[in-house]
TrEMBL record, chain A:
Keywords: Cell membrane, Membrane, Transmembrane, Transmembrane helix. This is Branched-chain amino acid ABC transporter permease. It is found in: Cell membrane. PANTHER family: HIGH-AFFINITY BRANCHED-CHAIN AMINO ACID TRANSPORT PROTEIN BRAE, HIGH-AFFINITY BRANCHED-CHAIN AMINO ACID TRANSPORT SYSTEM PERMEASE. Residues 1-27 are annotated as: Disordered. It is a multi-pass membrane protein. CDD domains: TM_PBP1_LivM_like (cd06581). The chain crosses the membrane at residues 33-51, 83-103, 110-133, 186-205, 270-293, 313-334. Its main location: membrane. The keyword Transmembrane applies.
Automatic annotation (TrEMBL), chain B:
It is found in: Cell membrane. Belongs to the binding-protein-dependent transport system permease family. LivHM subfamily. It comes from Rugosimonospora acidiphila. Keywords: Amino-acid transport, Cell membrane, Membrane, Transmembrane, Transmembrane helix, Transport. This is Branched-chain amino acid ABC transporter permease. The chain crosses the membrane at residues 12-29, 34-51, 63-80, 92-115, 135-156, 188-211, 223-250, 257-277.
TrEMBL record, chain C:
It holds the Pfam family ABC_tran. It comes from Rugosimonospora acidiphila. GO terms for molecular function: ATP binding. Signal peptide: none annotated. SUPFAM superfamilies: P-loop containing nucleoside triphosphate hydrolases (SSF52540). This is ABC transporter ATP-binding protein. Keywords: ATP-binding, Nucleotide-binding, Transport. Residues 9-244 form the ABC transporter domain.
């Protein structure tokens, strides 16, 4: 990330203002430093928000932050290149289980286990990336799904290491605890940091050379290769970055949960939620995954609280409606609506229907 | 040796049913390039319809299965016509998400109506078994398997011999050209989806007769369909049959030597291996470009 | 062509089969640096297959591709691009959702002389677009472009790679008289700068006026290679490619 050094998060202008069309995403009209300033304010606002919340609400907002981080992670590969990983939860589960095993069996402190877990997830991605990223479209989606499901079954079947289906507990109290439990308030901050870090990564990526390369791959892989882009390396890099971030989130989640089970850590629904959040928000953008994750998670929580019995049912219906009405994502929808001064709700249906 | 023979027979019988589960899934994927994540939910809905008809009217499941088929054909036709057709030209993961929403809707709808408990349709004959030279052949599974194979073969011959079948195949190969030939693609797509759903419903009714079912099984059947469709090659009906039998055998054999759910790991390992090594499937060639040549 | 310098492009026994169909069989020829080679042939003659084989978008079944002496046989497209080979696509392949200059800047960012800073890449992009006579705003998106500008964008993407060997796959299709003339002018100027160029084209006028050598492909085989006018008066070519219309005109 050579570009990172140029970026000044405190809000000082980092570079000369580019011409409007330089910016591929929703920041089009803004000076380059403005989004970073807004981001910094948003982070401060979320910290301030914490003091106003009950403990249950702290956990709810932590979950929203977690999904922002997960959606951004998925965005790095799926959003930029269009390679839709439907097995992203494999890296989440791998990160979580690495942390649990490293802490429970090897007695590592959490602050050692956290980066190691992310590295393990990234290394796994590097290994599977080469063969899988030769597959396209649905084939890639299914192969990754197969990897995630297979990984879950393996975790279930090595109980000596992972506790199997009965789960594994991280020692958080007493003399076996390598790191004492952090508590809801600290996890809130940790999730915030992870969400902010992944967002910054996506922001930097979207302006970088690699970001342009990945977007070119999404539009036309043959033309991207002809333009000199080493598409294999670009795709594997994106997958590894994406897996690193996802593994990081999985690690935090595992420690927060204390006891983890394969059914939850490798739940295909987590993958689908990541995809959904990115698509609804606007794939390949910085803002989209934040909007998507916040909206979908808030909605899901609201439904769970008020329509406990039928909340998944309603969620299903909303997903169907959202996908039909907003297939290009909220960010692009709002941008087009702003540009044309009208709400083109059914235009998408006109574009994509048979 | 006897145990091996027994597990082979069992694997083939199970494989026939799995082939029926997957054949519709493969058809939809091959013709429309749509992966229907709600396919497993269709299977389970089929099981519930048959079960309900059995409860209300005392219908034998081999009669009630026609009810499952009819109900799911109409459901499938409408789903495609009113929902999936709206996003057919969108990027691939849009249809995946749409059918995921549908899967949530159906499985949770079933839980709301029937609860998540396991159920089964009980018949006097299904659990009896024939003894063939020391190998037990359960009657219900044998009937189900034969029916499944017959239906898959019938589908193949219908696809090859009838106008509608040819129209479906043509639309799958080149939608634009098919439309120029006067084929109503919207109707054909809906029809294809309806046929696939009806086959899923039939499979569900069979599965309900030979074992238990619950809404939670939906994702399992969707995943099986994936594996089989990939093994056999997309849109290749013989491939689905072969893939189903192969998966049944592998699961049954692996179940002899491997503990518990490691059998599933074998299935998924097989899936990934075949995808990487031979994305066109073991038998077929793909309708859609599966990977780059460069 | 026994020049002492290394040939810009050397093709040896190049073949490619698709199943039972031989799209290109046993093609061999040599192209000296700074030459313009016109490639003609009826549809399905193997013209695009030939380009795809050179640029690594297809792997040859047999044979060799050497560019400036370096063996590029079966190399991946970005390796070929890094060796100084650029191409256009017959069906234009813009990166939609990006502006025209961003499209071109990508070639400048990667390729043989990569510009890692975005601003430098955009400067190269603007220059490349200017050279092609791109008429729309450089910030226009591909969907807003006319056919001619879409072709020019495709050409600019190739030029931004600063290639030594340029393969043009029907860049002039869909252009009108004046636009074709400007394009031909550009091809000449590029050659004067030392670029070697392969022009695959349907337009007879374009090929005739621009090429040093013309290669005729027919059913995947080399029919004839030679000076433009010699090739065009060859009976085999008239029969295989130009057809009745030209024969009649000649008779008149």
């Amino acid at each position: 990330m050579a570009a990172e050094s140029r970026v000044d998060v405190t809000g000082k202008p980092a570079a000369a203002p580019p011409t409007p069309a330089d910016e591929p995403d929703g920041w089009r009209r803004l000076r380059p430093a403005t989004p970073w300033a807004i981001g910094a304010i948003a982070v401060l606002a979320v910290i301030a928000l914490q003091t106003q919340l009950y403990s249950g609400q702290v956990r709810t907002v932590s979950t929203v932050l977690m999904f922002i981080a997960l959606a951004q992670s998925w965005n790095i590969l799926g959003g930029f290149t269009g390679y839709a990983s439907f097995g992203q939860v494999a890296f989440f589960g791998l990160g979580g289980y690495s942390t649990a095993v490293l802490m429970a069996k090897a007695g590592l402190s959490y602050w050692m286990a956290l980066p190691l877990s992310a590295v393990i997830a990234a290394a796994f991605a590097a290994v599977i990336g080469l063969p899988l990223l030769r597959l396209r479209g649905h084939y890639f989606a299914i192969a990754t799904l197969g990897v995630a499901e297979g990984l879950r079954e393996i975790v279930i079947n090595v109980p000596r290491l992972t506790g199997g289906g009965a789960g594994i507990s991280i020692p958080v109290v007493g003399k076996h605890a390598s790191t004492a439990y952090l508590g809801n308030d600290t996890f809130y901050i940790v999730f915030l940091v992870v969400a902010a870090a992944t967002t910054v990564l996506v922001g930097v990526l979207s302006r970088s050379r690699l970001g342009y390369g990945l977007r070119a791959i999404r539009q036309d892989e043959a033309a991207a290769a002809a333009a000199g882009i080493d598409t294999t390396r670009a795709k594997v890099t994106a997958l590894v970055l994406s897996a690193f971030c996802t593994g990081l989130v999985g690690s935090v989640y595992a420690f927060q949960q204390v006891t983890i089970y394969p059914e939850r850590l490798f739940d295909v629904q987590i993958t689908l939620l990541m995809v959904m959040m990115v698509v609804i928000g606007g794939s390949g953008t910085v803002l989209g995954p934040i909007i998507g994750a916040t909206a979908l998670q808030a909605l899901s929580e609201y439904l769970r609280a008020n329509f406990t019995e039928v909340h998944t049912f309603i969620l299903g219906a909303i997903i169907i409606a959202a996908v039909i009405i907003l297939p290009q994502g909220a960010v692009f929808f709002i941008r087009d609506a702003w540009r044309t001064r009208r709400l083109p709700l059914l235009d998408n249906v006109r574009t994509y229907r048979l | 040796m006897n145990a091996f023979l027994q597990s082979t027979v069992y694997g083939l019988l199970q494989g026939g049913l799995l082939a029926l589960v997957a054949v519709g899934f493969s058809l939809v994927w091959g013709v429309m390039n749509v992966i229907n994540l709600a396919h497993g939910a269709f299977v389970v809905v089929g099981a519930y319809v048959a079960w309900q008809l059995n409860e209300w009217l005392g219908l034998d499941p081999f009669i009630a299965m026609f009810g499952s088929m009819a109900f799911l054909f109409v459901t499938g036709y409408l789903v495609q016509r009113l929902l999936v057709n709206l996003v057919v030209n969108a990027p691939v993961f849009i249809t995946l998400l749409l059918t995921f929403g549908l899967d949530l809707l159906l499985t949770n709808g079933l839980i709301m109506i029937y609860s998540g408990n396991y159920r089964a349709i009980n018949t006097s004959y299904a659990l009896k078994s024939l003894a063939l030279g020391g190998v037990r052949v359960p009657v219900g599974r044998l009937l189900g398997c034969l029916l499944a194979v017959a239906c898959s073969l019938l589908l193949v011959s219908l696809m090859k011999r009838t106008r509608t079948g040819l129209a479906i195949a043509a639309t799958g190969m080149d939608r634009g050209a098919a439309r120029l030939m006067g084929i109503r693609a919207r109707h054909i797509y809906a029809l294809t989806f309806g046929i696939a759903a009806a086959l899923a419903g039939l499979a569900g009714a069979m599965l309900a007769t030979v074992g238990t079912f619950s809404p939670a099984d939906a994702s399992k059947y969707t995943l099986f369909s994936f594996v089989i469709a990939v093994l056999g090659g997309l849109g290749n009906m013989y491939g689905a049959l072969a893939g189903g039998l192969l998966l049944g055998l592998v699961e049954s054999w692996a179940g002899q030597y491997l503990s518990g759910t490691l059998v599933n790991a074998v299935a998924f390992g097989l899936l990934v291996l075949v995808l990487v090594a031979r994305p066109a499937g073991l038998l077929g060639r793909p309708f859609y470009e599966s990977r780059l040549e460069v | 062509m026994n020049t002492p310098t290394t040939p810009a492009l050397q093709i040896r026994n190049l073949s490619r089969r698709f199943g039972g169909l031989a799209a290109l069989s046993d093609l061999s020829f040599t192209l000296a640096p700074g030459q313009i080679l016109g490639v003609i042939g009826p549809n399905g003659a193997g013209k695009s297959t030939f380009i795809n084989l050179v640029t690594g978008h297809l792997r040859p079944s047999t044979g060799q591709v050497l560019v400036h002496g370096a063996d590029l046989t079966g190399k991946r497209p970005w390796r070929v691009a890094a060796a100084g080979v650029a191409r256009t696509f017959q069906i234009v392949k813009p990166f939609r959702g990006m502006t025209a200059r961003e499209n071109v800047a990508i070639s400048a960012m990667y390729g043989p002389t990569p510009r890692r800073s975005k601003r430098a890449a955009l400067a190269v992009a603007d220059e490349a677009l200017e050279r092609t006579g791109f008429t729309a705003a450089h910030t226009a998106t591909p969907n807003e472009l006319s056919v001619a500008d879409a072709r020019r964008l495709e050409l600019a993407k190739a030029l931004a790679l600063r290639p030594r060997l340029l393969l043009l796959d029907e860049v002039m299709a869909g252009l009108r008289g004046k636009e074709i003339d400007r394009c031909l002018e550009l091809v000449h100027r590029l050659r004067e700068e030392g670029m070697t160029i392969v022009v695959v084209e349907h337009l007879m006028k374009a090929i005739l006026s621009v090429s040093d050598q013309v290669l005729v492909l027919h059913q995947g085989r080399l029919l004839i290679l030679g000076e433009p006018h010699a090739v065009l008066s060859d009976d085999r070519v008239i029969e295989a490619y130009l057809g009745q219309r030209y024969v009649q005109r000649k008779a008149r």
